[in-house]
């Protein structure tokens, strides 16, 4: 009987580049930008785009980053989370742990969706989309009520 291979990497495999991105992205980008104007322009666009996505993360820090990474949609994984953490100068261990717990939660969600079957996975995906859309509104309202 042949061994079954997983279609997605394990959370630990997904986390391998995260510490390096958090620690060295800005240094590497500065080095590249100093060597090439086209690279500087590209990196500037990349950082501006990441900063646009970083609004909720900037507002809620650890919880925001963990939830951002946990949402199983394209562009919301650990690597993007690490880029955002680096750009926002989040503390290393805070950024690393938020990424890790987000990846684990995303893995659990995807596993659940896969085991539900196609019809229920589609329905669950739509529900997850609406939950993630309103999640930030709910968190903002909770934050405002705590500060009032």
Automatic annotation (TrEMBL):
GO cellular component entries: chloroplast
Sequence intervals crossing the membrane: 62-85, 92-114, 120-139
Entry keyword annotation includes Protein biosynthesis: no
Keyword Transmembrane annotated: yes
Entry keyword set: Membrane, Transmembrane, Transmembrane helix
Protein name: Small multi-drug export protein
